[in-house]
User: Fold this.
Amino acid sequence: MTDYDPKIVALYDLMNPDGADHDYYRSLANRTDVHRILDLGCGTGILTVTLTVGNKEVFGVDPSPTMLAYARQRQYAENVSWVQGNSSVLEHGLFDLAVLTGNVAQHIPDPHWAQTLADIRKNMPKGALLAFESRNPLQRAWESWNEQDPRSIDTPLGPLIEWNRTEELGEGRVLLKTFTEFTRTGEHIQEELILTFRTQQQVCKGLRDAGFEVTTVWGDWNKTPFDGSQDIMIFEARAI
Assistant:
């Protein structure tokens, strides 16, 4: 994979701050039956380090060397085992809880998504919990991203202007192009990624095929049941 620009990584937490989504995942980690946690696609580790409260054994896994280098410099980073790679590097650690946050599920294309779910299941005992969120394709969020005007942001690296462009590729895949211009220096950074928007039915089938039972699908971080109209789908599934 093409790694992220270090400047973008340094600003990632500013653009994606701790919030209600992290509170939700921490509530799962705080359950008494959870002792060993996998944060797959942990990124900068902003959530990962907070999951260690209560002497939890936490593993942060991410394919980006730049993201992990940033994560390893965080306060309390020494309490996490950081691993570079994807689900294929898991070694049957039997995690009580596995999470994929920040819409990581959409960053994993087919057929790698099915393999990722299978790899996670191999590393979980019966009854262990898998939780993640994904955007609801019925809301077509990528259209609003394309329509948004460039926004100006003051950052520790100086002011910048950011905007997006999207293109539908078919079969739920959307090409997202992100443009960032640092106004003081004139430096311009362009990044591209493909997001996969899966329906509730597609996600549930993938989970069943991998050996999970879907127990709940929430429509927001306040645990409102998903009814098809919300922007996100939050899945909880138990290993069977």
Q: What stands out?
A: The mean pLDDT is 96. Residues 112-122 form the longest helix (11 residues). Residues 6-136+199-239 form a domain with the Rossmann fold fold (CATH 3.40.50.150). The chain has two domains: 6-136+199-239, 138-196.
